[in-house]
Design brief:
The chain is mainly α. 62% of the residues lie in helices and 4% in strands. It has a two-stranded antiparallel ribbon. It starts with 12 loop residues before the first helix and ends in a 7-residue tail after the last helix. The N terminus is likely disordered.
């Protein structure tokens, strides 16, 4: 189990997830090249994973900053993607510890952050509250997170991959190739 980490106001969760992933990736790359990685990197990555798991709210959402009460679909998806990358190839105990958080986060994304439509899945801007800032990027971020988790989650992988495909389907059919759209 993990000890409860004290919430730090203004602490950016998706940056923590990115840092955990990058520390492991860079260390692995250096070791494959016959170089020595800084011995502090892997323990720091493990702390980042623990912190991220501890900062997930009970609904499954990772807020952009700890302590805020608004939702951010794109940055939440970044947490899923980077956490899945950070634990992939880690020890079995860490993967087992992270999977419930990852699947809870993916369920939040699919059930609360996205809308299922006949034309495909789309980002729910009523939840995001920001259709202008991250419009197309949100589709790629959410699809990437779900596809990445789909490759890691043996039990529900097909569900996550299908949601990723549906996001890309909606993006292409309704936003890019829509004959009613004026250029």
């Amino acid at each position: 189990g993990h000890s409860r980490v004290t919430s730090i106001p203004g602490y950016c969760n998706n940056t923590t997830a990115l840092a955990g992933m990058m520390l492991r990736r860079v260390a692995s790359f250096l070791e494959k090249q016959g170089r020595t990685a800084d011995p502090a990197w892997r323990p720091a990555a493990e702390r980042a994973v623990e912190h991220l798991i501890d900062q997930q709210d009970v609904s499954g959402h990772w807020p952009y900053w700890t302590g805020v009460d608004w939702f951010d679909v794109s940055h939440h998806a970044m947490c899923i993607h980077h956490l899945a990358e950070a634990v992939d190839g880690a020890g079995d105990e860490e993967v087992e510890c992270a999977m419930p958080a990852l699947t809870l986060g993916a369920r939040w994304l699919v059930e609360r952050g996205l809308l299922q439509t006949q034309k495909g899945t789309k980002v729910d801007w009523a939840v995001e509250h920001s259709a202008c800032i991250y419009f197309t990027q949100s589709y790629f971020t959410c699809a990437s997170a779900l596809a990445r988790l789909g490759s890691l989650d043996a039990e529900q992988g097909a569900r996550w991959r299908e949601q990723a495909v549906q996001l890309m389907r909606y993006l292409r059919a309704e936003l890019w190739d829509n004959p009613q759209t004026e250029l």
